[in-house]
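Notes from the 1:1 (GR / supervisor)

We went over the backlog. Supervisor wanted to see one worked example end to end before approving the batch request, so GR pasted a single chain during the call. The sequence is below; no edits were made to it. Supervisor asked that the structure be written out right there so they could see what the output format looks like.
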Amino acid sequence: MDATPIGLNADFGYVILVTISAIIMSWKVGYQVVSARKKFNVQYPKMYSEDDRFNCYQRAHQNTLEVFPIYLVLQIFSGIYAPRFSAVCGLIFVLGRLVYAAGYQSGDPKKRLYGTFAYIGIGGMFVCSVVFALELLQIMKW
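Structure output shown during the call:
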């Protein structure tokens, strides 16, 4: 693989594209809350409603925001070490989060569990990041 002018493997471009797709996914889930506010007549600054259907949209978005910083750090660390593997894991995360949100927004919160496969992606990036750190510290050679 060729290195970029800043020393990254050229395949890091895949990581950048997947990260951009994750940002778009986050915006999409956020926009769905804005639409749900109109649909269920929930005015700002109320975070929640008496209507649990709106609350399902809100929680899908909040949970996405809660896990997003962890995803970003792991995507970058693992992407520097193994960009193609990291990009695949990131794509699994993004698709899983979309399924999670759709399941939650269905009105049956149990359906959010269909998207828990997103954590396969997070797990892969986590392990890859740990291996990267151990190799940098010369504790382990993979």
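Supervisor's comment: The chain has a mean pLDDT of 94.
Batch request approved.
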